[in-house]
Amino acid sequence: MNQNIQQFKADFFKALAHPMRIRILEILSDGGKNVNELQHILGSEGSAVSQQLSVLRTKNVVNSIKEGTSVIYSLKDPLIKDLLAVTKQIFDNHLVDAISLLEVIRNEP
Prior knowledge:
2 strands; extended; mainly alpha; single chain
C-alpha cells in the first residue's frame, strides 16, 4: 500500500514540475478560467497554455467543464491551493535562511 501512495505522490509532483503549470494552478486557485482568460493572465500563446492544461488534466489535477463554446478549468481538489501556500512558505523559509547567512558573512572580519 505504501508503494501505491508513493507512486501517486511521485506522479502528482511530476504533474506540477513545470513553472507554467504551477502558475496555472495559482491562477485557478482564485476560481475557474477558460483558456483565453489563462492566456491573457499568463501573457502566453494558447498552444503552450493548452499543452500544460492537458498535462494537468491527464494527471487529474484540474477539472474541465464545457460551458457553451468554452471549457472552464478548475482545481480538482481545493487542497492544491493549500499545497501552493505551503510551498511558498518553504520558499520564504529558505530565503530567510539565505539572508541570515549573508548577514553573517557580511559581518565577518
